Amino acid sequence: MIISRSSRILRVALFILVPVAYLSMVLWQPASAYTKHGRAGVNSFCAVLMLLVFLVCSLSWSQHRVVAAFGFIACFLWLVITLLPVL
């Protein structure tokens, strides 16, 4: 079976971004959190990272369902932690 270049890039992105999403948990905080400088808001790095994780997991769902499921779980947890206290 010949694997195309775009498929390899997508697989590498999946296997790198999903662990990075879980490692970024130390940066997660509610959007309504306060720091000594005022309201924290949503961390832009985490927002972009979770968007990328969601897109890569969506694109690679047919071939790597287990890893993609872990990526979707990370995105869901980030949304709950970030937005639930605000709602």
Brief characterization of the structure:
This protein has helices spanning 5-23, 44-59, 65-83, and strands spanning 34-35, 38-39. By secondary structure, the protein is mostly helical. It has one domain.
Written overview of the protein:
By secondary structure, this protein is mostly helical. The chain has one domain. The chain has helices spanning 5-23, 44-59, 65-83, and strands spanning 34-35, 38-39. β1 and β2 form a beta hairpin. α1 crosses α2 and α2 packs antiparallel against α3 (65-83).
Shape assignment: elongated
Structural category is mainly alpha
Radius of gyration: 15 Å
| Number of structurally distinct domains | 1
Please provide the ordered H/E string of secondary-structure elements: HEEHH
Topology record:
Blueprint: H1 5-23, E1 34-35, E2 38-39, H2 44-59, H3 65-83
Antiparallel strand pairs: 1-2
Helix pairs in contact: 1-2, 1-3, 2-3
Keywords:
87 residues, mainly alpha, two-stranded antiparallel sheet, 3 helices, elongated
